Amino acid sequence: MERTLILLKPDAVQRGLVGKVLSRFEEKGLKIVALKLMKITPELAAKHYESHKERKFYPGLVKFMTSSPVVAIALEGIDAVKICRTLMGATFGADAAPGTIRGDFGVSRSFNLVHGSDSPEAAQRELGLFFPENTLHYDYAAYGWIYDPIEELKKG
Ligand code: UDP
Ligand code: MG
User: Fold this and answer.
1) How many CB atoms lie within 10 A of CB 109?
2) Which phi and psi (to 5°) does residue 34 adopt?
3) How many Å lie between the centroid of ligand 2 and the Cα of residue 117?
4) CA-CA distance, 53 to 84, in Å (whole number)?
5) Are 96 and 90 in contact (CB under 8 A)?
């Protein structure tokens, strides 16, 4: 099993799309292992977006992400990082395919509703930043039907 960090960005919260966007991940079969509404501090934003520091869009991105609360979520599943990125769609709503979160709910080139870790290494780092108190471990009844218990769960 793999874990990934998802952020429902300020635009998702302010537009009343938290439930709909979270449902995309839940319905796909990802297990929620942590979830909280929080305000991102400038310090946390700087750590989280460290790799974008030199980019032209960085100041606007930090301003956006710290402007209003986000919902931080840790999700678990086999290949969770890749599956979540696929569900999110391309970075800009205008380019993202219909059926993806960004493709269905937005058109902006900066307000794009959702963040998802882009590699298992990034996920570990980002989960440490947003959930230093650790995520939960519990039995998820649905796993027995989301995955083939003989073929998949024994490997995962
Ligand atoms: N972003 C932006 N303008 C750009 C590129 C990115 O405002 O030209 C923002 C956007 O919110 C994006 C975030 O910066 O989600 C991180 O960019 P990245 O290229 O990592 O895209 P992602 O991994 O989120 O698809
Ligand atoms: Mg990225």
Assistant:
1) 12
2) -165, 150
3) 7
4) 24
5) yes
pLDDT confidence bin for 156, thresholds 50/70/90: low
Residue 86 in this model has a pLDDT that exceeds 60? yes
Q: pTM above the 0.85 mark?
A: yes
Which residues lie across from 37 on neighbouring strands? 71
Does position 18 have pLDDT exceeding 80, yes or no? Answer: yes
Please name each of the domains of the chain with its CATH number: 2-134 (3.30.70.141)
How far apart, in whole angstroms, are the C-alpha atoms of residue 104 and residue 23?
13
* Across 144-152, average pLDDT: 93
Catalytic residue, candidates 48, 52, 115, 137: 115
Amino acid, single-letter form, for residue 43: E
- Any catalytic annotation for residue 115? yes
pLDDT of residue 153: 86
Q: Which residues surround ligand 2, an ion (CB under 5 A)?
A: 118
Which run of H or of E encompasses 5? strand 2-8
